[in-house]
Amino acid sequence: MSDERDAESDVEPDEAPPESAPTESAPDPKVSAKKLNPSLGPALPGKVAYPLALLSGLLYFAAFPGIDLWPLAFVALTPLIVAMRNQPTRRAMGLGWLAGFTMTMTGFYWLIGMLKTFSGFGTALCLVFMSILCAYQGGRIGFMGWLYGRATNRGWPAGPVFCLAFAASELVFPLLFPWYYAATVHQVPALLQLAELGGPILVGLMLIAPNWALAELLFAKLDQRKPRLRLVAALAALPVVAVAYGALRISQVDAAVAAAPKAKVGVVQANMSLLAKRRDKEEGLRRHLRLSQELIRKEGPLDLVVWPETAVVRAMDERNASNYYERVVLPRIGAPAVFGAVLVRQVDDVRRYVLFNSALVSDPATGRKVEGRFDKHYLLAFGEYLPFGDTFPKLYELSPHSGRFTPGTEAKPVPFGEHQLAVFICYEDIIPSFVNSIMKNGDAQLLVNITNDAWFGDTTEPWIHLALSKLRAIEQRRFFVRSTNSGVSAIVDPVGRVVAHTETFKQQTIAAPIAWLHGGTVFRALGELPWWLATLVCVGFAFVRRRGGEAS
Question: Could you tell me which CATH number the domain at 261-516 has?
Fold first, then answer.
């Protein structure tokens, strides 16, 4: 490879000076023919490409939980794939960003209510903040487009590069709220079972296959050539293979559940508003106790009752907390329990304290002693802490409802007699790597999440949260119990089926049997290591020109 060619490869095609707008049939003059991959065919002009990216964002939103038109997951990315073909890097990034921004602005509309609740700002200002957040969140697909544009413009094959770039974007792009593509098929357990092998990213890549098959048919029509039917058939067959694998694994896991020892678990959803919990701390405790006792009278003895996040609102000094709960709370529940609490730690003698959002677990023998504790690690921005609030304390005066919690430091299962519970709080249940890290530190037999989605109002967010969290049950092959303050509380089996659930913003209780399961999965053993390797390969493609360099 000559030095002249190496120098040429470092010049991005999107640096070409702008010219007059092309006609619809002409190639886009902003794309230098010298730097395109001839085998990819011509790039679409911007006036066609950008509407296609917008369409992909809308289809992604429609397929996502909340709207739940899940068959659209097989085609939602096709317009974006067609739009990004052979585009310069900056345009590919812009197309990806537009698709991501469109999806998050429509799918995450509930952010505006959350911002109003905690900041106290007016609707207009909250809309500005929401737009900024969604512009950032949409950057995930923009990052994918950047990797894709750089790599394909350096001669690497478009299909594999798209998959690698998509996996990299789901893995490394930091998000306030993850939105894995796999969640689009949360209602189809047979398609989700691949999660035990590679988590949500592997499920998402399987869904990309039919999108690319359709794109190949469209490329053939645009290029006036015959489609590569073997490729189309192979890609279209991948979801069928996934369903066959899923059906086999579901039957095997169901057999393991049938043979395993059982326990009966109850879930309490007290449905107290955020301000009501703060105004009358004792009412929250009374309500949870009453609902627990009613549940036990209805269902009979329970092996475990799960209350939601901060069910006991009164902040307690951690040195005296166990004594208080063992005297005042646990004897009145009537069963062993997991419940949310706020604990205080004094860190110096100058009246400086830190707060922890914690989950406490009582012993299974009597249910009257605190046996374990877990402190929340991933705090919710604006709700539990204010970004840059420690640097600029005045910000807390502008956002009076924002908390000042401290993250926990220990991620391991909590003992529960002869068993172990993997307990996590709020949206920690949608972070696969975090749950995996807890499971690697012990063989927990039950996943327990306590959360409070009342922050987001009666919107689609609680259903999205449940859909994203379901995959933890499959990844770990464990029953998964969620107790939320206002819904959706649920009990999920190890193949991702919802055994029982509540509605939103209702006082409700549910109960169902669970099985104490043992053993690991491929995902627990490997975690996200394969996706980190895939990301390294993709980044390499983005910076190294392929010898012989035509893409396919």
Answer: 3.60.110.10
Give the pLDDT mean for 312-334. Answer: 93
DSSP label at residue 381: B
Beta bridge partners of 267: 306, 510
Question: Taking a C-beta distance cutoff of 8 angstroms, is the pair 64, 103 a contact?
Answer: yes
In tens, the pLDDT along 478-513 reads: 999 999 999 999 999 999 999 999 999 999 999 999
Residue, of 185 and 548, whose pLDDT is higher:
185
Q: What pTM does this model have?
A: 0.90
Euclidean distance between CA atoms 356 and 408, whole angstroms: 7
Residue 280, token pair as written in the block: 């009358």
Joined together, the tokens standing for residue 14 give: 């999107």
Question: What percent of the residues of the chain are helix, what percent strand, and what percent coil, each to the nearest 5?
Answer: 50, 15, 35
Q: How crowded is residue 30: how many other Cβ atoms within 10 Å of its Cβ?
A: 21
Cα distance between residue 62 and residue 109, in whole Å: 13
Task: Compute the average pLDDT of residues 462-481.
Answer: 98
Per-domain boundaries in the chain: 27-253+529-543, 261-516
Distance, in Å, from the CA atom of 154 to the CA atom of 163, rounded to the nearest integer, reads 16
Give dist(CA 50, CA 27) in Å, integer. Answer: 15
